[in-house]
Amino acid sequence: MTKARGTEVRDANGRWLVRLATDQPAIAHLGLDTEGTGRETHNLLREPLRLSWMQSTAPLRSWSVDEIEPGHVRIRHELDYGILDWHIRADGDCLTFDIRQDAWAPVYDLALPFNLSQQHCPTAILPHAVEHDTRLQPPWLVVAPDHGHLYAEVIAPQGARRGTGKRHPAERYAPANWHATLAGQRQSHTLIWTLRADRPFERGDAVTFRFSPQPIAKPDGVSDTLWQRIRRPWLNQIQANADENDVETPMLLANNVLSNPAVCCTFFYSDAIRCLPEPLPGIDLPMLVRRTLDDWFANRVMQHGNVAAFCKSDTYLFTNPALICAAWDYVDATGDLDWLRTNLNSLNLVANFILRRDQDGDGLVESLHSGNRWSLRDPDRADFYLETVNFGHKNALTNAFAYRAFLRYADLLERVESNELAAVYHKAAAKLESVFYDTFHNPETGVLAGWISQDGEMHDYVSPYINGLACAVGLAAPEQGREILGRIMTRLRELKPEGWRWGVPVNLVPVPDYDLIQPALRPDGKFGMCELARSILDTVPDELGVPRWVDPDGTKSFRGRALYNGATQTGLTAFLIMGLDAVGMREDADWILEPLLQAAGAGELQNGLHVESGTGAEHHDWDGNPTGYEGYLPEGWYFLVAALMRANNRPGLPGMSRTEGAE
Length: 663
Hints:
Number of strands: 24
Helix content: 25-40%
Number of helices: 13
CATH class of one domain: Mainly Beta
Strand order of the largest sheet: 4-5-6-7-14-11-10-9
Mean pLDDT: 93
């Protein structure tokens, strides 16, 4: 063996950095920062990157690392019967890998496995196409959130292969095709992106991989100044899950690359994809929306039309309108009416379930849970992904999304000339709109309440995102919106005059114990998802001996200390920004948006996937301390969609502004 010197290859503008290992034929450090702000010093590799092949058929006898010239390093592998060279070069602003075989026998199962770290971010791989669920076809977009991206291409070798002195079938002279796989295991935080040759690598075979930090396409109507601020974090919104041990289908839009797909959140991602469907040539982001929806239609739309939000959890009515909105995004971005016709019956089953949930005929849909005091207990979930607060029965958020879904589904029906059925959903939207504001407006607080429980009680904890969403979809007239959002903005400025860098709180009034999710009742004595709250809240048994929280006024858990009671959340803050823009309160929207853009630029809205529950940076308390469970949720950057909508002079939720054809 030959010991390597401390050799490195870097981009002249600091956008990527490669350092060679000193004790093995490998890359020890791969860093990336497309904005050139110094983050390339963070290593995206968990383990060194080295060529892999079936060693039993081509034993490695020795190796060397040589600097051919500045910016060009060769790793030479001496095999039993020849040489396998790996050239690592800076080519302009591109990083290139040239792999060349000069051995007398084939090298089998040649691969480059990138063992990726999640310490700084969960690196996502967005392919051109997916075959058989696990074969990812080039080109690939490597997205390292808050570091940037690399466009990865396979470049065909120039010229003919050298012969081996023997006669071979002509097809053996064709360049080897390459594909990729992405496999992971969340408990060990393992994530391996592997580039694989489709056939044995023979003498004279060569391949070039080019990794380039070329800029992604700028959406129409966006100024250069704004785009420069949001172009690096923009792709943070897109994560597709790896082929992992406890998920049914890989390469669906997901909470992150090592977490579950959750269709209740897919609209966050599809709204962003609709704005920029092909960020670089061949990177087909709508394909990921289609794969996600197809998998849900096949596996997670239940017999009566209710939809599982994730895994088999099917108690969020909110999931149904969320799926409809994602389907509209896909069709609107692609014009794929064949897909729409194929899936129309499934979409109708989902949409019709929403209609049928208007159980008393007043125009509002009722959630599956009652929303009554003390009624929410783990493993039940509230009717929304902010699942620890007792949204149920007639809740404002699900109804706002039902309104959006009725209009979006009517538009889909009109595209395939099903106008009679479309009229039903237009009427349902109009009926819902006619009663929404009066039902949820609370004269005591002057804002819209969260929900009306089955027993008739109004539950109002002054939630900015609920009021913003109602304005963003048009369920509050502009003058009504300015009044309710004016009250909320006054409160937000009083509470934190310097601004909300990690998003605004999900509620400004503490949620008392009876409207928080209660501990699980389990034989092991654990509290399930409520386990972390045990260090803050006491419990007392009810008349059956089942534990209940003790926090009568909600102040112990408030400000994001536990159970997301008043936690800050950037994704939901987007609804407030959209609502402010929709009713003409642009200066207030700027006051909310600016700190978020600063935090996004500083990389403060995630902290990788190595975190323990309660320390993830997708949620924060009011002092900026992370309180989340994942560490990374892509919807945390949904406020960038709000920034794009206002730049295009289309205020409100995507697909709902008058300039986009909403009814």
